[in-house]
Design brief:
The protein is mainly beta. The protein has one helix and eight strands. Strands 1-2-3-4 form a four-stranded antiparallel β-sheet. Strands 5-6-7-8 form a four-stranded antiparallel β-sheet, with helices on one face.
């Protein structure tokens, strides 16, 4: 079962190329991401709070509408860019990378805002030391 729709918000859809009344899938707190869904193309749109933009070093809204079937699948061994959206198969959830920690021998912690799961730290570039 998908996330509960709370209300609608007018927002620009970069796929439909117009302002659309979108379903608000998850209203993030002041320091998080609000997730919207376009009813026409069914793309998802992360709307960044001012605090998140500052954390990410962004001055404008990025990214635009993302089609779910175009998101890469999360892998612990993968590398992700700040602002990139991916699909986490085990959690059946979409997330956007907000911040990257320092690299260690085994990988790097990344802060991700998930559509349903909220803010979580997970690992990227994981490398097992058992070889």
């Amino acid at each position: 079962m998908g996330p509960e729709v709370q209300r609608r918000k007018s927002h620009f859809c970069s796929v439909c190329q117009r302002v659309v009344k979108m379903d608000m899938l998850r209203k993030g707190p002041v320091d998080d991401v609000t997730w919207l869904k376009c009813p026409d193309c069914e793309g998802i749109v992360p709307v960044l709070s001012a605090a998140i933009k500052e954390l990410m070093g962004m001055k404008e809204e990025v990214p635009g509408t993302v089609m779910k079937n175009e998101c890469p699948e999360y892998e612990m061994s993968g590398n992700y860019d700040v602002g990139q959206i991916f699909y986490h198969k085990i959690w059946d959830d979409y997330g956007m990378v907000l911040q990257k920690g320092k690299e260690s021998q085994k990988g790097r912690a990344i802060m991700v805002s998930f559509l349903r799961g909220g803010l979580k730290k997970i690992v990227e570039n994981y490398q097992s030391l058992d070889t």
